[in-house]
Amino acid sequence: LTANDKILVVASDGLWDRFTNHEIMMTIVSSFYKQRDVEGAITYLMKESVERWTREQGMVDDITIVIAYLNVG
Asked: Fewest CB within 10 angstroms: 24, 32, 41, 51, which?
């Protein structure tokens, strides 16, 4: 990690198979990072992932998400 790293996302393929890295980062930065709202970010990504799985596959894979806002430096 470097001082430039601000967010760490650890998740299962239930999330990564439906989102790109860039899409996840932009979602977190634009809507949740400023308020340090980890729960809101996880809830949003979980709900959106379930919707995408249901729409695209007709089922839902297991989804695990951990987000940490870093204070490196």
From this structure: 51
Indicate if the pLDDT at residue 53 is higher than 60: yes
Please provide the distance, in angstroms rounded to a whole number, between the alpha carbons at the two ends of the chain: 9
Largest CA distance in the chain: 44
* pTM as predicted: 0.91
Query: Distance between CA 68 and CA 45 in Å, rounded?
Result: 14
Instruction: Name the E strands within 1-73.
Output: 7-11, 65-69
In sequence order, what are the residues at sequence separation of 6 or more whose Cβ sits closer than 8 angstroms to the Cβ of residue 19? 27, 45, 48, 49
Q: Which residues contact 67 (CB under 8 A, 6 or more apart)?
A: 7, 8, 9, 10, 28, 38, 41, 42
